[in-house]
């Protein structure tokens, strides 16, 4: 599964595109998932403010790295909850 997102806010000034690819892990495709994340951050052309634009891009990239770690953590928690819920459902069905 691949997800692609783009920013809506401030799109006249900055363009952010994020791609996340989820694939079965080759060593354990039934239980593990590989997550690949790629981000592109670009300030729209402002020739008079080129050095400032570069600093803004750098700050955005730093902030994105912080937020992406939080996003991966949330996805891992959701996956763990799904596994636990699935095991409970399977036990309930087996007991019925």
UniProtKB/TrEMBL annotation:
* Name the UniProt record assigns to this protein: PRELI/MSF1 domain-containing protein
InterPro entries per UniProt: PRELI/MSF1_dom, Slowmo/Ups
Signal peptide limits: none
Tell me the organism: Cannabis sativa (Hemp)
Pfam family name, one: PRELI
Q: What is the lineage of its organism?
A: Eukaryota, Viridiplantae, Streptophyta, Embryophyta, Tracheophyta
This protein's GO CC annotations: mitochondrial intermembrane space
Tell me the PANTHER family matching this sequence. Answer: MSF1/PX19 RELATED
Domain PRELI/MSF1, residue spans: 1-87
């Amino acid at each position: 599964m691949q997800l692609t997102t783009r920013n809506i806010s401030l799109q006249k000034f900055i363009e952010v595109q994020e791609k996340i690819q989820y694939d079965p892990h080759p060593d354990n495709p039934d239980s593990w998932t590989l997550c690949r994340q790629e981000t592109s951050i670009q300030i729209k052309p402002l020739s008079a403010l080129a050095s400032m634009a570069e600093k803004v891009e750098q700050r955005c990239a730093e902030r994105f790295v912080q937020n992406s770690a939080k996003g991966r953590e949330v996805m891992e928690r959701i996956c763990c909850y799904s596994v636990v819920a699935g095991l409970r459902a399977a036990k309930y069905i087996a007991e019925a």
